[in-house]
Amino acid sequence: PTSSPQTNGLRLPPDVSLETFETAIKELQNILGEANVEVNDKPLKDGWYLDHPNTHDTFHVIPQSSLVASAIIYPSTVPEVQSIVCWANKYLLPLYPISLGRNLGYGGAAPRVPGGVVVDLGRRMHSIFNIDAENASCVVEPGVTYFRLYEEIQARKLPLWIDTADLGGGSLLGNALDRGVGYTPYGDHFANHCGMEVVLPDGSLLRTGMGAMPGPEGKDNPTWQSFQHAYGPAVDGIFSQSNLGIVTKMGFHLMPALNENEHQSYVFTFPRDGDFEQIVDIIRPLAQKRILGNIPQIRHVIQELAVTGRGKETFHEGKRPMTDDEIHEAAKKTPLGDCSWVFYGCQYGSPESIKQQLEIVKDAFFKVEGSKFFLPENVPPGHYLHDRARVCSGVPVLRELDWVNWVPNGAHMGFSPIAPTLGPSARLIHDLIRAAHIKYGFDLFPTLCVAGREMHYITNIVFDRSDVAMKERAVAMMREMIATCAKHGFGEYRTHLLFMDQVARTYSWGDQALMRFNETIKDALDPNGILSPGRNGIWPKRWRGKGWEL
Ligand code: ADP
Q1: Which residues fall within 8 angstroms of residue 346, CB to CB, at 6 or more apart?
Q2: Residue 100 pLDDT class (50, 70, 90 cuts)
């Protein structure tokens, strides 16, 4: 690849001279104001979650300066976003739009191509439009976080819940576009979006769904946030996990708020590692019949240690991964006691209905010998179950950050394959991933988000950002896990920037038929290849086959 060397701390976009870059920056500064077009020539700072950088991946698993922006742009209006796109077409600059860039574990705010220009939409575009208590919906701009929407709804005393991701500082819009999940009955974020407004790579503006039909007297269509599918091909999907448009507005369905006694979070623990298959087979029919109200999680008991935020050294001396015996020994001292698997669930409905649901759920899980049941009142105030109860009732929290303290300078990278909700598949995928963690010397932190037919097996590889060898091992392990899982048909639902090409190639049915289709659309909509080249493994014609694929 013809990536330019760093000039005075600046990484230029590929194939763009310093002179052209400076001319282009000045031109855009004249349109947006000087302060809203920043050149990234200062030392990189990793910051932390709420003060995260938009210049690079704060959780860098390759050298910090590898995935780095040349400039960051802060538009404040949709016409400004359109001007930015036209400007990028003129100078052939690769633009990487982010909402907030808190996509941690998957690349954060970083561009895929070094020297890419990051369009930070969230900084100045964070309005909430039309929170509609009757339709139970809203429209948001990219910078609206779960916290911000939650606070707005509270301040206006509206009878609505939000559905937050694990961490409340993310963008509703950004997370839904990357197909993130939450834990109320509205937890599938993309499925609960309704209508988008998108700036296309040629600078034109599109509204999807019912929004494509103008409302009376020039207003927005009155059913834009009521009916997702509208008329004709459903195009919304091509703007998620892709590089075909910059989404400037997105509608969401919100859940009508429930009272305190209309939701009940709880935990089951299971003593043996070998209970895993049975747990998964118990969940399947409960989820298919919708007796389980949300997407529950099965977590390995090691997470009970990690989520205390106290660091591995509290439980174990030395760097090698903890053995099962050591984990059990440490788990004995935690509020849930010694066990192997922990199930976090929540039931919704009237108090009588919750009672009946819990009887069914208990009957099912108590078939596992030695299983135990806990309500929030059965665990100390600082226990993670209380945070889970908040998330499952639409209250954003930051608790999931705590386990990054497992190692010094902690960072993480997500590995998230999809497997069938079947006992033998659960065992197989767990064994494959466990073997890789043992081989490469990492503790394994599995969290499974289990639906009726598939499970997201999410494991976060926690590494020390200052330990180069450890980072190299993490990358090698990731590549091996992607390849091994794909052999069994387990594909990732989302991945870190570095692995997007590899994962895209695993979806190879019909001699890469899907990739050819994506490339055809990409070339038609973005002939100059200016929008997020390489995102999700889709490279525009101008970039394809030039050595950028990893
Ligand atoms: P969050 O901060 O909620 O985790 P990000 O802003 O990091 O979300 O978004 C995740 C990814 O989704 C980005 O890296 C980008 O590829 C894509 N994305 C986010 N916002 C937009 C947008 N408004 N238009 C197009 N793509 C976007």
Answers
A1: 183, 184, 263, 264, 265, 266, 293, 294, 296, 388, 389, 392, 393
A2: very high
